[in-house]
Amino acid sequence: MIGLEPPRLVRHIVSRALKSGATDAVAEVYLGRERRIKFANNEVVVAEEREEATVSIFVAIRERRAAISINNVALRNVEEAVKQAVRLAKMSQPADVYAPLPRGPFKYDRRLLRAEKIRGDPDRLIDAVEAAMNAALSEGAKRTAGNLIYSSGKSWLRTSGGAYGVAEDASIELSIRAFASDEATGHLVSVAAREEDFKPEEAGRRAGELAKLALNPVEGEPGTYEALLGPMTFANLVEEVGRSASAFYVNAGFSFLAGKIGENVSSEVFTLADDPTVPGTYGSCPFDDEGIPTRRNVIIEKGVLRTYLHNSTTAKKFGTETTANAGLIAPTPFNLIVEGPGEDLDKLISGIDDGIYVTNDWYLRYHNFQTGDFSTIPRDAILRIRRGSIENAVKRLRISDNMIRIFKNIRQLGKERCWITWWEVDTPVYAPHAVIEQLNFTKPAL
Predict the structure, then answer these.
(1) CATH code for the domain defined by 6-107
(2) Band of the pLDDT at 94, cuts 50, 70, 90?
(3) Which pTM does this prediction carry?
(4) SS3 sequence, the chain?
């Protein structure tokens, strides 16, 4: 039990923090419900439901800051968490600058305060899983596995700056992996925040198609190839660009975009916006963690880096204004949208003479954050393209390259785009296929 209704609870937390010596305080309460279905070997194996209740607390004593999140939200536990947050702030290393929380109140876009309609009743969710599995099997898969998560909830945010907002959310995520054999797999997702955008059958069908194409893989030869990156793979790289645009990581020396404002960091066909103001999208949000109304920010415009993402503290340090991307410690993107001209998938493939189609990847790791040198392991269907056609499947390759080099080598983007989130991609990315002029492949370690 919470003990206080959420509107009173967030007010109480802020008041307690200020009385305990904080100069700034933010409280957020989230109450929600999650339904989760897991399936394997073409059968539902787990169907469970749980209630969610979280209290997030941020306090600052001028330059000293701390944040705490708890799931046990009884009033006694909340008050203890406030005390602990203040104690941690007093012990923390001071930031370089102090920026008080922005002064509200603020007005928010009403379209973003309410969740779009999306069905989450248990029978409908089971039907969606079965539709995805059957679609994959009809394309040649022998078995399927994956999960579906439906969540809905409501959050209350209050700050000592006078901001107050209440927002609903609802979303559904289906992740399906299809197996034509133990080595031949395909993976796709369907992610939606409104009913008409949820397409489980399409995700299952495409996963099944990829699994069938991946049959009988041969050892891949390391080298530099033209590359076609599927939306799952490209979304992973795009998320890294969004993360690296955070002024916190730029300042900390963990960004390959540091010092590059106004410079070309990608091909001119590539534009990247962070836009949480699009209603009915998975990452839409009316306010950031400082209570500031969110806005569209163009990070890269036709290849040129235009902005970093800021909260009030990083904005003061960089001599600019917040972009409404708080993250009270580290600014973060909400909703990464790839823009730019696109071609049909068939045309992208037909334009590749000697290439590799990477449909998915995992375990992306940096060798050097500042330069953007990294590696990642392709997974699921890896397909060899010769003279404009998919010729066969390959296996055992690693991508070892550089982020800036890859984005500057984008030749074309796909016309069709889809929302991607899954284990490797936390931030929603609206991603197309992408053709890379040159991409370096090596052999993975045994």
Answers:
(1) 3.30.2290.10
(2) very high
(3) 0.96
(4) CCCCCHHHHHHHHHHHHHHCCCCEEEEEEEEEEEEEEEEECCEEEEEEEEEEEEEEEEEEECCEEEEEEECCCCHHHHHHHHHHHHHHHHHCCCCCCCCCCCCCCCCCCHHHHCCCCCCCCHHHHHHHHHHHHHHHHHCCCCEEEEEEEEEEEEEEEEECCCCEEEEEEEEEEEEEEEECCCCCEEEEEEEECCHHHCCHHHHHHHHHHHHHHCCCCEECCCEEEEEEECHHHHHHHHHHHHHHCEHHHHHHCCCCCCCCCCCECCCCCCEEEECCCCCCCCCCCCECCCCCECCCEEEEECCEECCCECCHHHHHHHCCCCCCCCCCCCCCCCCEEEECCEECHHHHHHCCCEEEEECCEEEEEEEECCCCEEEEEECCCEEEEECCEEEEEEECCEEEEEHHHHHHCEEEEECCCEEEEECCEEEEEEECCEEEEEEEEECCCC
